[in-house]
Specification:
single chain; about 190 residues; alpha+beta; Yope Regulator, Chain: A; six-stranded antiparallel β-sheet; 5 helices; globular
Length: about 190
């Protein structure tokens, strides 16, 4: 019974992938870029200076210093917080007080976090619903940082609608069409 629920809810591909993961990484297919392409796409360590340049290039205005910035994107403010000793960074954009959330909005946020929020996520921090992107600072690449800024901004813009960070998504067709899952048998 549980197997049928999983296949119906997530599809055969997801079940097959889960089985491969449970069997161990040696069972996974060896996918990846060709050696020439991998060499061409040299990874660069992200620095505060590089991150600040990226944020400035995608924002209307930026205030702050030393890895703690507030960027303006249109009429929205995004906080960029880094912690070099912990090798972490966050992009955070507020949406609304958590106390004002409806049950439907919470469910839609959770579905989006799985299906359509991609690299950014909906979260609650200090009583505020936020869109957030969290990543190790040193391994963040320029392309991913630029994408993250757009995804966080899109989550805020699409809150109450598609709840998506981009036009790309995995599986689910959105909160409005999601069906209530059956109870799993254990």
């Amino acid at each position: 019974m549980a197997r049928h629920f999983f296949i119906r809810s997530f599809g055969w591909v997801a079940l097959s992938s889960l089985a491969l993961l449970l069997a161990g990484t040696e069972s996974l297919p060896q996918w990846g870029a060709s050696p020439a392409l991998a060499q061409e796409q040299r990874l660069e360590t992200m620095t505060l200076a590089r991150l600040e340049d990226i944020v400035r290039s995608q924002s209307d205005a930026v205030e702050g210093e030393n890895g703690q910035w507030e960027a303006t994107l249109g009429e929205r403010s995004m906080l960029i917080v880094t912690h070099t000793e912990a090798d972490r960074m966050r992009l955070v954009m507020p949406i609304k007080p958590a106390s004002e959330l409806s049950v439907e909005e919470v469910q839609s946020m959770m579905l989006a976090n799985f299906h359509s929020a991609l690299d950014a996520r909906y979260a609650v921090s200090n009583g505020i619903v936020v869109a957030v992107f969290i990543h190790p600072l040193s391994t963040l690449q320029e392309r991913d940082a630029r994408s993250a800024i757009l995804q966080v901004n899109n989550l805020v813009e699409n809150f109450g609608g598609s709840y998506a960070s981009s036009a790309v998504g995995f599986g689910g067709t959105g909160a409005a069409q999601e069906t209530e899952p059956e109870a799993l048998e254990i």
